[in-house]
Queue: 4 jobs
Job 1
Amino acid sequence: MIDRRKIQAATNSRFTRRGLVLFGSQLGLAGILGTRMYQLQVTENQQYAERAERSRIRPRLIAPVRGEIFSRDGTPLAENRQNYRVVMVREQTEDIQLSLKKLAELIKLDEARQEELYEIIRKSSPFAQVLIAENLTWDQFADINANAPALRGVSPEIGLTRHYPEADIAAHIVGYVGAPNEKDLKRAGPAKGLLKLPGMRIGKNGVEGIAEEGLRGTAGLSRVERDVHGRTIRELFRQEGTQGDGLDLTIDLELQKYAMERLGDESGAVIVMDINDGDVLALASTPGYDPNNFVLGLSQKQWVELRDNEKNPLTNKAVAGAYPPGSTFKMMTLLAALENGLNPTDGHFCNGSLWFGNRFFNCWKRQGHGYMDGVSAIKNSCDIYFYEIAQQVGIDKIAEVSRRFGLGIEPQIELSRVKSGVMPDRNWKESVLGEPWYKGETLNAGIGQGYTTTTPLQLAVMTARLANGGYDVSPRLIRGRNGERIKPEPLRSLGINPDNIALVRQAMSAVTNEQGGTAFRSRISAIGKEMSGKTGTAQVRYISAAERANGVRKNKDLPWKLRDHALFVAYAPTDKPRYAIAVVVEHGGGGSAVAAPIARDVLLHAQYQGKPPPDAVPSDAVPFWGHDPLGPV
């Protein structure tokens, strides 16, 4: 017989245990929840409160005001102007394409640009500001403000944009700014966020590029409150950034303008340096270009015209144009020979050619110069004399002295894309070309041809170091920062015998101030303002023996690209030098006829601080390509 009381008791016992297990589980769960709630509300309260606060309050970078750039006398070369622009935020725009279409009715925004902007906005962060257009006119800006209710997500803003008042006059010095590209962003490091701000511009070349970090300044900071949807409610805090450095350049603006005018429509460069402190007073490169077009945005037509121009307006020829120095190099060959024991009174006879190896090396004067010593060889630019002494002293010693005067070494100047040129020697040829040096190559190097290339700036440095008696003056462009003058580095001796430098300077004076000198007709006649210099004509094409026999074609009969480069280096005044100059006119022909008159007139302008008196140039002076000998003022 079944005992129901036992069954009931067993059942009650099972329910009791199940209840205990369930109750224990619930109690444990409640304990876990309670513990977690305690952690969230007490232990981790501060952490989550800070996280919530960060979600509610977002920091924003504020672009700093870019530092401005001034000439020697305080004239602005790069300044900031108001920039009327318009931006769009995707999250605030119901229909991106419709907003762009309405905006196109007020400003220039073709269909291709609208489609491009649509893709940029669509892929951007919902709350990021995307720059639609900038540098708007006041009327365009006013129209956008008046139509703001119909332009959802579109905001007109007033910012700053770069402006270059002197346009092409100082373009190759100052450079220009542009929007950061992908390479710029990769190199930016911690500043990447700042560079992504709408309308942000950075220096691309020139002083703008080389001094970018200082000119950019320090970003400001704003904290804004946002709702749960990410919309900005209000600004809680704002701290403006620090304006970038203001830079005072060494450039004498009036002299710079004159040098540009003197070069005219030709392709070339003029450098004027102070021989005592290295201040670059003029750095002209022609043709120039308007850097404002790069800030506003070049059209395809403008870009093609600049890119395809055979005179390369985008190249700063003063520092990036590498040319055979021609006869302007002969002072280095003579100085190397003097430093290695050459008696300056010892001479060589020039009959117009020299047989060496298995060929003739010719002088520019076919009938020859006769007997030449060191001074007369420089004065007459006799090639045969320098062939002779070059093979005596050797290429390595010529190169060693030349490097002391800055050739083959990149000048340390505050500009981008500066070339070092080439000062060859045996080791250079072996390491670069994998070939031995041949003796005949020394003869070509001795007259500034062959592998040797120099920039106009290097030639100016070489001339300045000769003019100051052999001290290591180096070029500089930045004279002061934020109103404080930067002291130039003290000069050190190059270790060259002063007597040898004095003899070279005597020879350079003979070039311009003695009858028969190659630049005598470009001399300065004003007492105390005379210049000393050296002409140079750099050959750019091969002249065959057959052509020499039949008569070398004149530059005027050749295509522009095949004509010789015209060069001239000089310093003034002769007795108490202060200014050094180098002039290169690409495919200009002869240095004495083309480059020397330019140098003369620029040096006169520098010494007189303006237009010189009429009698500063003699009546028999070579005019500048048929114009008034003093050229444009």
Job 2
Amino acid sequence: MYLKYFDLEEPPFSLTPDPQYLFMSGRHREGLAHLLYGVQQPGGFVQLTGEIGSGKTTLCRCLIRQLPPDTDIALILNPRLTVTELLAAVCDELRIPYPEKTASVKVLVDALNGRLLESHALRRRTVLIIDEAQNLDGDVLEQVRLLTNLETAREKLLQIILIGQPELLRILGSRRLRQLSQRITARYHLEPLSRRETYAYVRHRLLVAGRREPLFTRWALRSVYARSRGVPRVINIICDRALLGAYAQDRKKIGAGIVRRASRETRGQVPLRARFRPALAAGIVLALLLVAAGAWLFSPAARSRNGGQAPAAARRTPGPTVPPPADASSPVPAGGGTAMSLEAALAGAGNTDAASFTALYRLWGAEIPVASPDSGCREGGREGFACLFLNGNWSKLRRYNLPVILELVMPGGGRHRVTLVELAEGSALLDIGGRRREVPLDEIDRLWDGAFILPWKPPFPVRILSAGMRGEDVGWIRNTLDRLEGGTPSPGDPLLFDGDLEQRIMAFQKRKGLIPDGMAGSETLARLLLDLDRGPALRR
């Protein structure tokens, strides 16, 4: 409904898992590392827990994509099963034949054991993944534990991953299941996204869906985090409803008010003003009663009954007057005098958004006039530039080694974009409204929450490339990897995105700290160009 209105190619906040929308926060990367480590151990259990909607299933799918091709996977998504039904489901997943309508646990276990021995002889690994494991009955969990007894003289034949909500921790901590708990070789509890990660998550999904310009204001993103607490599924629900609300109101930008309303609607809450109408009416009646009572208490008739004095409640001996501090009316600068120097420079420069893009394009040797605050990426796009809306820290900026646009937030809520021209050890050279200024990093940190824009020049129109695609852009990626790795060109069709190229891209992404999904998107292409030393350097 709102796709064309917001220049989107597809819904950015769909609840359906889609690999190209995968956002790997630091927590998700760490969780994936624990899963990969656990799978490589000889037998036992791997445990992943997290709140509802925190991304456990998405992380599980990412794990499956990264398991080696000699791995057989049995994925159980609905564990509300009996012991017999669970064993039958595992056999079905692994395509193990068994007698139809059998109710014998022994028959199913024997069939499973036979297949595991065959796979072991072929040097294949078998992994059983059980999602929503907190729904497993105690008897079923005990049978799952017994499956780890399927082994040869030297190693276990089955690796088991249990994924569930926090209730799984309590279940596995019970005395009855202590034997199972002792066999867990890797544990990880997936926390929600941080505030910075929430901002980056929203920008990432909009960018993948085709939106290049910012859509949510800074205060809207803060409201999204405050109401979702960083839970990805809740973020998706709120943002999707906010897009619909903005479309219905004919708004091109989404502000905090639209997000607050969207959050109430998704939770089925009555608007605040509607909830308080009865209370407001009662408050008005009470106020009128108090006014009437006061008028009677201070009336001449009431004073005459009290000897001409006001009622006792109104007769108070005045205490000593405490004068206010001498500087009470003088605001104290946040962060001291050093913070005020940068704040004063920003306030004096006015709206710096357009100037920041002009200054950055000039560093690339391009004179691109940017007239309005929101047209920076669009104007650059006409000259072959593209924008990445990212989130990170100084270490990440040093790895990119390209000038970027920092998004600074003033204590009062105003937002400024400034160009990061150079980055030294303890300071940075900023272009603020056309004037350059050396600023200590700790001073910038007071106003910077990690959001930045990376305009760059892609070698071809950006799209996400994945296995099975074919074209000149695929050939460019293959040739670039050949140059960077210094090896001989791989055999086969140079324009085909085959399995070998997917593995090479995944290895490159792991080396660069990117999401190792084997697909070539904007960030992967930017890092390839960075390694080719294309573009102005950020470090001196």
Job 3
Amino acid sequence: MKRIILLISVVCFIPSFLFSQEILSGLQYNPVIKDAVKKEIQQNNAGASRRLELIKPITLPFFDDFHQKSIFPDTSRWLDRDVYVNQDFPYRSVNVGAATFDAIDEYGNLYPEASSFPFIADILNSKPIRLDSVFDPVPREINISDSVFFSFFYQPQGRGNKPEPWDSLVLQFGYPSGDSVFVYYDSIPIPISSYIQPGDTIYPLDTLFAPSYCDSNKYLIADRFYVYGDTVQMPCKDVFIPEYTWNTVWSTEGMALDTLFARYGTYCRQILIPITDSATYFRKDFMFRFFNYASLSTQNVPSWRSNTDQWNVDYIYLNIGRSESDTTYRDISFVERAPTMLRRYQAMPYSQYKNDPTNSMADSINLVISNLYDEAFNTDYGYYVDATDGSYSFYHDGGGCNLPPFYSFGYQKCDETCGASRACPIIDFIYPLGFGKDSAAFEIKHVISGFTAADTVGDTLSFNQEFYNYFAYDDGTPEAGYGINIGGGKVAYRFQLNQRDSLRAIRMFFNRTEGNANDQYFDLAVWRDNNGEPGELLYKEVDLKPKFSNSLYKIQTYYLEEPVAINNVFYIGWIQSTDDNLNVGFDTYNDASSNIFYNVYGYWEKTAFTGSIIMRPVIGEAFDPFDIQENTEPNVSLHIYPNPSGNGIFHIEAEDHSQLSLNHTNLLEIYNLTGQRILIVPFNKTLDASSLADGFYIIRVTDKSTGRAFSGKIMINR
């Protein structure tokens, strides 16, 4: 067999340098409890999260299109963090962003119970929902005549790995059974002075009983020496939560994305479910949940057994007043994420860009836009380019155009006179050269909206263009894993400079496999160009091993022992020491396949796969190895609820309160979808936007103490 490169599914993350604080904060799960909950789900009698005891039920309507910056589900609607909210795995979903179910947990690790036999992996529990009453315009009970429907879109595989026929995606409705289940021991700090006098000591294995106001049978065996003045954390009371009964109302078997398309003529299928069992579900604590069964590769080689079986779920909507024909939505949407405006790279060093800015820019980009309604909309489109430091601003006016319904005419066409102005907009600017600066960053915001002020449909899409000290073809999210299975085999990755430079480091992302079986030795290598393929070996560092992280999408850095002079075209890559797959992250969204070469038989060949390896050369002047410039700020989203709002009243919280001081000295701005600011007020956790017309708006909160700004999308739907 000549071709032996393999592509496998891998960890689905975004780089943790964007979200590291967010991921490590508030994730102190007890693995014993976590595993127990999953086993209970398998037995169809699982309780919900321990957090239920603190949660106030939310009200209708329930809607989430996962069009957000945070990689975790919005805590104003959801209880869990298992699924990965992203714009990378979905392929032609209903809009940008979806919740991806796979075989890894919220830390980016394979589930401990993962095997070649189907196991329950990611779980997405809703918060309890008031399905007994509505409260707007006046409070009243919900009954059968209110016609309650639950809908969502789903997609197997997307840009990831196809679920096998024995895998599945499951939807369940739940209600409290009337019983409760034990979750954990509540503990309290007790001063050791309650047990001993000054000068006394408590020794290891001594028994300490809980105080009288705790459960009488609680005690602690000392694990160390305690003296007067110390404090001990003492178990006090058992904590129970309501036990939920779960009924499976829908499920589907695993399949490839093209199989779904062949069966239903769509890449993203909508499911509409009436809720008619009022005695069971019309209650104040109704819940629903999705979960997936996943299974690892049946191959016996552990280094190939990694994340797998992706499902994408999107546009979840639960409300009264719906019907079986309620399958369209008064909404226009970008369907795929915003692309880079550079010709070749997702990111590149600022010094390299400034040497040839014109040829570094693309001529145009492609946007995928759909109209989810059953009527056409006359729309405006344009894009904004803003330097993050406020030093530059540019606006491109794409003009007006008619956008017909997707279900009849498909996406906005490039071959139409006006359609080309937004489906394939030209790039008629260059990023400023920033003399004296060694880095820069820009936000490109695409905005499409109804042509008139009264027509508030629209959508906004953003892309962050970074100019730091590295080249990247990839976007940092590995939808798959790449490797070769021959000891001594080589992989080389081609890059092109605008001017001579020095290679200082190489950054790589390694996906975890079963038991970290890909933790194998390899040599890091740099080659000179030889007529379009790797030539003379310029540098080799031997006996390295993959670096892993417990954070999501942590790209690791290998610093070269000495700088390597590079000119024009060069190659970075690795030489394998074993026949084990190194499972390097592979981005299937951005195609750099023409620059990927492998050599297992003594000659170089181009890869057969479409995508880009997550491997980045770091170049430039000497630098602090602990200060590689990259966006290390965590993205902190605003949690806005209820959203949509039936009366224009919203409540606003920060996803991580340590990142944003929510006080009245901060400013809150509201923009329409054309980018026009229509309101600016002192920040308040309750936003009264009742004076605005129905539709979508962007809100922006600026923290005056740090200068940072956070934004979110709101919808008014009376």
Job 4
Amino acid sequence: MLLFPCLALGIYLGSLGLLNLIVLVTLFSSLVILWLCLAYRGRALGGLLFAPVVIIGMLLVGYLSGLPEKAWVTPKEGDFTGRIYQVQDLSFDQRVLVRLSSTRQQVAVHLPLEATPRVGDAIAFTGTISQPREAPNPGVFCYRQYLRTLGIFGVCYPDIYQVQAPARAGILTSLRTWLRSNILTHLQDPGLVLALVLGQRDQLGQERQETWRRLGISHLLAISGMHVGFVALGLGFVVRRLPLSALTKLVVIQGTLLAYIIVAGSGSSAWRALLISMLGGYATLQGHRQDPLHLWATVGWVLLLIKPTLVFDTGFTLSFAASGGILLWSPVLKANYWCKNRIIGYVAQSLAISIIAQLSLAPLLLGYFGEIAILGPLATLAFLPFVVVLMIGGMVVAVGLGSLGVGALLNGVMHLMGALETMLLHLAVQWSHGSWAQTEVYLWWFLFIYAGWRLRRPRLTKPKRTIAKLITITVVLLFLTCLPPVLRRPLEVTALNVGQGDCYFVRTPSGLHLLIDGGGDSPYWQERGRNVGEERVVPYLQHRQVSRIDYVIVSHHHEDHLFGLLAVLEHFDVGMVIDNGHDHTSPTYERYIELVAEKDISYHVARAGDRLKLGDGITLHVLYPELLRPNLPSAHNNNSLLLRLEYGGVRLLFTGDLENAVLYDLAHDLRYDLGAEWLKVPHHGSRGSFLEDFYEAVDPNWAVISVGSNSFGHPHDEVVDFLDKSKITWRTTQEAPQTFHVWWGLWGRFTSP
């Protein structure tokens, strides 16, 4: 059973290029030889070595069948031809997935909305096939990661294209079109039925999808193992009464399920259910008794060996995690713990299964979506009967029997579902781990998995000993997760990737949040029309489950520091805004002042000597300016706030866009104590903000350069060479955000790649 997660881990690590093939082969061979030698001599230790041998073997398989970076296409320009196998409308264009005729490689081609491509059409296009873009920050949609789950490693926005329909539509396309048209004809609101029966969500409104997400029942919309199970149950009820042999009945049921999955275009969850049904049915037919958990692992093996990219498919991961958790706990769930009343016992057991499924998914849901719908298990139980009716009735309507009154029945059922949605939506509560670290969530999840493993083996372990061990581990975890935050979590400073601009997110151990600058757009060096705040900063903060920002600090009011904060002020509750009080004439500054007034946010003009105590022994000092100096050259840059964040013996210095004229004064004025272990390099590493005397006064060990694509030559070669010569560990935000952690005020380090 453990081989399946080992294989998944190996493929994932292999895709990151973290595995050295030569080292793996050597280690794998050595362990195999050692194991064989010990086994030959009858040593019990040989059996113990089998587990690491298998794990290393799975990692090796992961490397060989995984997806290293070399799988991504090298950008190439030219004329291409292929055939379309999937079409999806997006907000501003439509994406068609094409299998190229020459290389059989699969690429995503983006066409205008007015184009009319269909599955099966031939396409010829001219353009450049390149690598899709990665997400600049966590929480931002990663197009590259998404396409990777589809097995796509190239994307093209063609200059010229031509789509040609085949002489006749394929049988599968014609069948899907006929089934869809029947549903559209007989139902007033066909969105739910199309999603449940054919897996098509184009008629399902965003409002309803959001409602189901908040209720925690979005999984009911996907063609999944549950749908396959209900179809199999209905087929079995009919087929078992036919005068056929057991083998023929099995073939009829599984063949019908296979046809349904193909027609519905189902995902990995449905294929998992089908393969488990096939293997389980055949084993039962042969009189073999199989552990469902072993079937689950076997099917996972098969799917990953056929298509390793499924490791990156959210649906695959969630499906196998939920089903695996249910199967792991199934012996306990089947025990007679519930109630002697059959109906109440069935309801309680169903609710328990739903809760187990949600607990099995807890860290994944928090990682993917940042929250868990508390009402999910109860809402699933409430909506499941309606979903079953819609599925069965929808299939009847789809095959052309909607005129028998089934359509009217389904319309009534959907009205009842709408009323239930409205009633439950007010009770929907989303849980996020809040002050818990992701590591702590995983510790509790591992305990949940371990408890299921121990409790399912009563014959191998004494029940009293198992309960005692689980209680002991629970008490230890409670102790660890209830320690003061300052002992459990570090001070975090993350320089976000906002292009050519500054944005620093600070989180204290107790969960206080600061945002220093917000990046922004400027027509001089960034793409016009882009909103960095909406596209990069807000999604990151939501990903980090930030609901309130205690302090927003603006070093100065240039666009590349201020513009992104507009979206932040609009989306989040903000405790206080702090800036240098230097007015600006830009529309961005005017909107910034309006938002502070509209939302009644406390506002403070910072001056040298101000101190902000953030708790946990952390203090933010304002070192400069004492007074505004509007007559300086580059006045806005040279009046930037100079901030020092102190935590124990570790200091971090934020310099805004200060230039040499001010940096010289600061370095040679004895009133300023500039010493710091970490430095935000002034003004994106520009030549005009490079002064060796200043760096000597600060004497940093680590440095960050906030920089993006620009025409100014930032960071300047002199700055980079000096940092290298001075043995200062430095990083830029050009490709990814950079996080610096400070533990207990004693030591700090970069923790991001």
